[in-house]
Amino acid sequence: MAPEKVRLAAEKATLLATLYGRALDARSPHPILDDRLAAATVERIDHDFSDTGMDQRMAGSVAIRARFLDGWAREFLARHAEATVLHLGCGLDTRAHRLDPPPSVDWYDVDYPDVIDLRRRLYPEERRTIGTSVTDLGWLDQVPAGKPVLVIAEGLFYYLDPAEGRALIRAIVDRFPSGQFVFDALSPFGLRLQKLNKPVRKAEATMHWGMDGPADLLSISPKLRLVTAMSAFDLPGYGRLSASHRISVGLAKVVPGFRRMAAFYRLAF
Q1: What are residue 229's DSSP bridge partners?
Q2: Among residues 54, 138, 131, which one has the least CA distance to residue 90?
Q3: Is residue 236 very low, low, confident or very high in pLDDT (cuts 50, 70, 90)?
Q4: C-alpha dist (Å) from residue 173 to 85, 114, 183
Q5: Which residues lie across from 45 on neighbouring strands?
Q6: In what order do the strands lie in the sheet with 262-268?
Q7: Could you tell me where the beta strands, DSSP code E, fall in the chain?
Q8: Which phi and psi (to 5°) does residue 255 adopt?
Q9: Can you tell me the distance from the alpha carbon of 228 to that of 217, in angstroms, rounded to the nearest whole number?
Q10: What pLDDT does residue 252 have?
Q11: Number of other residues whose CB lies within 10 A of the CB of residue 84
Q12: Has this prediction a pTM greater than 0.90?
């Protein structure tokens, strides 16, 4: 089978760095996420992954982030054997393969049309995909609204226009009877530091939405309530990273602005 040629730009190109990070973790002696499908997928893509800005040091953080959100998703699906999952900005994430939800779960991978076309070539066995910008809200009409919904948005919201992102969250809350959002976010301060993120800089991508804590999020809809808000530097697993990375995380924890610049949220409605 000939390798898939991939030419992506701006925020779309960052999905290659994320995929490569999970592959590097899977190839390491002591993987955190152990996403072997990601490692196999990298081998099927014709691209110079060394140009993504991702390296082994950052790969550990990518794996920790994915494993943590996988855990929240598993908790929700354990309580809702029949649910709808909206995996927004899915990129080439292999989350559905990692979680392996039962047939009673309706799983939708949603991303730009060219990204979804690539997914269909790389993962032909997937159940449901929708090729669209997540902020073009007409795509929601393709999703039945009767079940509880789990919305997974890893590495997505900060790339959205704030008004469009808030409208997306509000539309989902208004469409489904109940559900949860699980995602990572940057604060306005974190947004100002985006050029320090090498994969973002290499892709020439731009982040737009900085979330100023739980109150900012809960103002989107009166139906939303906060379940969990956690600094990214408090995620379990950093003890397994390099000494230099552990020192960086330790310093970030004691400086309030840095501690709050990246966070993980779980919102329910």
Answers
A1: 265
A2: 131
A3: confident
A4: 13, 27, 15
A5: 4
A6: 128-131, 106-111, 84-88, 149-153, 179-186, 262-268, 225-231
A7: 4-5, 45-46, 84-88, 106-111, 128-131, 149-153, 179-186, 225-231, 262-268
A8: -110, 110
A9: 12
A10: 59
A11: 21
A12: yes
